[in-house]
Design goal:
The complex is a heterodimer of chains A (92) and B (98).
Chain A (H helix, E strand, L loop, with lengths): L1 E14 L8 E6 L11 E4 L9 E5 L2 H8 L9 E5 L2 H6 L2
Antiparallel strand pairs in A: 1-2, 1-4, 2-3, 4-5
Chain B lengths: L1 E9 L12 E7 L2 H5 L12 E5 L8 E6 L1 H4 L10 E12 L4
């Protein structure tokens, strides 16, 4: 699991059937000091996280396949929850 | 899943039967600069990779691809695939903090 910031969304019409109906967001991974670390990646977001909110991201593919209800889904990254902004800053 | 530009195709005259129904694309993964504008120039630095595609993406498209164990998940039989094209991207709304 890792901490990331929501930096955008993508729209795709032609996609794997398991992605249909699921919001796919662009996540910027952050290091322990809240700084950007590495290139952005995509994740399925069932929690409707807002722009620039911090989120907890799972890279457990089997859980994501269960979440979308398709054992043949190629998806891996799933938003587990939205991080409380105050708590995240208290750790700096 | 990551985003990348389709920059070419790979064609095989002989191939494993498991690959029937798809094609191989040469994809250049996005860096942070490519998210800001979907244009092909400049391309991101770093290595390109070959992505298996069943959706019909072509050169110039932006695709979302998965790597690792998830890339083989869509196949009914165990298939050696490192990267799988999961989406052809229509729009990217990217707004990092200023």
């Amino acid at each position: 699991m890792m901490v990331a910031r929501v930096d955008g969304v993508i729209v795709s019409t032609v996609c794997h059937p398991s992605m249909a109906g699921h919001r796919t967001i662009i996540c910027q991974p952050l290091d322990e000091h809240g700084r950007e670390e590495g290139a952005p990646f995509l994740a399925v977001d069932p929690h409707a996280a807002g722009r620039h909110q911090r989120v907890l991201v799972s890279t457990d593919g089997s859980h994501t396949r269960a979440h979308v209800g398709d054992p043949r889904s190629p998806l891996r990254n799933l938003i587990l929850g939205v991080i409380d902004e105050e708590d995240a800053r208290a750790g700096r | 899943m990551r985003l990348g530009h389709v920059i070419g195709r790979v064609t095989l005259s002989r191939q494993d039967p498991a690959y029937q129904g798809g094609r191989f694309l040469l994809v250049q993964p996005f860096g942070r600069d490519q998210y800001r504008g979907a244009g092909m120039t400049p391309l991101a630095l770093g290595n390109s990779l070959v992505v298996y595609d069943q959706l019909g993406a072509g050169v110039g498209h932006v695709v979302g691809f998965t790597e690792g164990a998830e890339a083989t998940a869509p196949f009914p039989e165990p298939t050696p695939v490192d990267a799988y094209c999961a989406a052809i991207v229509d729009e990217i709304f990217y707004q990092p903090p200023a």
